[in-house]
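A quick aside before the break. I want you to see a complete sequence-to-structure record at least once, exactly as it would be stored in a machine-readable document. Don't worry about memorizing anything.
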Amino acid sequence: MKSTCHRLLAVLLLALSLPLAAAPVLLDRIVAVVDNGVITQYELSRRVERTLRQLALQRTPAPPRHLLERQVLERMITERILLKLAADTNIRIDGPQLDRALTRIAQQNNLPLDQFRRALEQEGVDFNDFREQVRNEMIITRLREREVDSKVVVTEAEIDNYLANVSQDAGRQTEYLLAHILVITPEGASPEQLQRLRARAEKALAELKAGADFNQVSAAYSDAQNALQGGVLGWRTEGQLPTLFVGAVRDLAIGGLTPVLKSSNGYHILKLLDKRGKDVPTIIQQTRARHILIKTNEIVSDADARNRLRLLRERIVNGEDFAQLARLHSDDLSAAKGGDLGWLSPGDTVPEFERAMDALKPGEVSEPIQSPFGWHLIQVLERRDQDITQERRRFEARQAIRARKAEEAFEDWVRQIRDRAYVEYRLED
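That is the input. The structure line, written in tokens, reads:
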């Protein structure tokens, strides 16, 4: 105890002995004001450190610290604006919803949740920070679904036109794997602003042409939501890409870069990572199934739902009619049809449901299984091989058109929301 007191006293004496002119140590400061809230240097530094760990795990060289700080701050500002809008309009993610999402993420990494948590902590990731980041991403996804995705309309005429053009036919067209850098231009930007932002995009392109790593340049310059993942868009058919992109990459060699492309929402640079032809299978196995769903809530716990279904399963196995019990007990809209879901193709249901359904023989009833919607009993009625060429092509055409329109609409919507917010920068260069 004495030695501890002596050490503290020595520290105090040393501090008192410093010259009065010594510069004070800055513990924290505001780096941005966003509407009626602030982002502090401490918050920014924590996010930057998290980003650096993420880049290291991806084996992506980190950009210069000052560039990374600016890019991370931009993403934090946009995130704050969207989260505030979500909170103001009563979008919430409660604890059980978040826990189910974290469990699914752990399962995707082939780990139980407790082991997944330990793995994150071993990599230096604070689990509580990770948990809140997942919550924020879920909130923003719901906001996007409500404000943008739900308002995207795809007409039958658009699908007909899409399929009439052989080069856009989802069953025959080329797919592209692209990486993307976006420099956003504010709505109503002045010529001087546009010139400055274009120069930023041209600088990024010059670094890429000089051999810089695309992931590193993306992290340093791109305003896209996936900038820290190298800007990779995933495999996209021509119909899923803006016309501007298709024209730029159609004749590009693999590994090639486009020039800076100008669209209504900013400046783009694309790198063609790979391309391939697409041959959509026309014959698939379909399953006709029915189910009983018990949803959980504040009153019905997971244990309650599981026990109710176990009792119902016992009654079905002992000869009671599945359809009648579904009408009486199921919380799904299919209850009126005795739980009948019709013919299901692969991918039509959530993975947990599909795995359980695929493991059943015709006539067999599953044990209670959990999905994001609640708890289910599933019965497979029959299976068939089906030629779904035309139906699948129309479905894929609709999905391609919707994805393209939703992506463009979301980028424009975020830019408009951002332009209406009050943002004051205090980050020193």
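Two observations worth writing down. The chain has three domains: 30-150, 166-280+392-425, 283-386. The CA atoms of residues 83 and 136 lie 7 Å apart. We'll return to this after the break.
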